[in-house]
Amino acid sequence: MPDGEPDFTRAAILSRAQAVAADFTAHTGIRIDVPLELSGRAALSGATRRGRVSVGGASRLLATRDGWCALTLSRPADLEAVPALLETAAPPEEPWDAVTRWAARHPATTVTERARLLDIPAAILGEAHAAPPRVRPLGPRGRPRPMAGCLVADLTSMWAGPLCGRLLAAAGATVVKVEHPRRPDGPRAGSPAFFDWMNAGKLSYAADFDAAALRELLTAADVVLEGSRPAALTRRGLGPDRIASRPGRVWLRVTAHGADAANAHRPGFGDDAAVAGGLVGGSGTEPVFCADALADPLTGLEAARMVAESMARGGGELIELSLAAVAATYAATPPGPADARHAAVPPTPPPGPRPRASTLGADASAVHAILAARRALGD
């Protein structure tokens, strides 16, 4: 809890994350400060643990009639949907108080199923299972390549995908961050320090997702990072099976709960996805949130490692990771020795000063020049 003793029951996840980072380093030569990546956002904002309230404040662990679940009310539409969730005519004066009381009267399945009908991110504690990333052939393999010199189209937002893109940029790739001109990445409107940390060093390109220019970028890209719900690109003819094949291309898809038919449309964020995976703290009967949206940075690290490994074996693959499955995999990590779990962990300092990320669409001419050069080379 916020005022209780520190909880080290999940300390072993750091060792697993460091092993993933070491694999990335072996392929790219780029070292990763894992504690910083996992807790840097909280350090930037000065936020600390808050028990059953997420570090960022948008998610809550709720006691239901038969267990625990998590809900996230981070978007205006989520708050607007609360009256429908509670089946009340008017918005409650204190939304979270009303939601907490309502959840306590219903089974967890009722709470989460009703939330999902309203597109509110929700998850039952421990509902997801540990699973490795899904990898399937996408096109012809190419020659094994390092990340340096690759062209990466980064269509992701928030944290997991952008972290992957930043690590690939650090490894020498040219990363183009694509945002819709009227619906930019949410963190642009939040903490500038966090957005810069995730996106400095990328080229900024504003494109309507129905535009031919975006199709050209995806066709030319060696790596595509996708973080939207799969149907969002597919219905625009821009999914991995709808873009002209390119030897060695790696297409990474990050979802909240998986790309299968049952979960492809489910919304989710790092905190509620971590709960789905059972990645919570607390050694008693009541769970608490474990770190800050932990499923996000863990998935970003896993994604960067997977892309680098795929390129090293010639690519030609679609890689699918879900936040919830990654969280469940880390939740299943056996605890380390007791002395290591209870060792003093120094506070993580915030990331040092970063260059500013480009303003939205500022690098369009540079992106067009890259595409023109690839056309001229027949690449």
TrEMBL record:
<dbReference type="InterPro" id="IPR050509">
    <property type="entry name" value="CoA-transferase_III"/>
</dbReference>
<dbReference type="GO" id="GO:0016740">
    <property type="term" value="F:transferase activity"/>
</dbReference>
<keyword id="KW-0808">Transferase</keyword>
<dbReference type="InterPro" id="IPR003673">
    <property type="entry name" value="CoA-Trfase_fam_III"/>
</dbReference>
<dbReference type="Pfam" id="PF02515">
    <property type="entry name" value="CoA_transf_3"/>
</dbReference>
<protein>
    <submittedName>
        <fullName>CoA transferase</fullName>
    </submittedName>
</protein>
<feature type="region of interest" description="Disordered">
    <location>
        <begin position="334"/>
        <end position="359"/>
    </location>
</feature>
<dbReference type="InterPro" id="IPR023606">
    <property type="entry name" value="CoA-Trfase_III_dom_1_sf"/>
</dbReference>
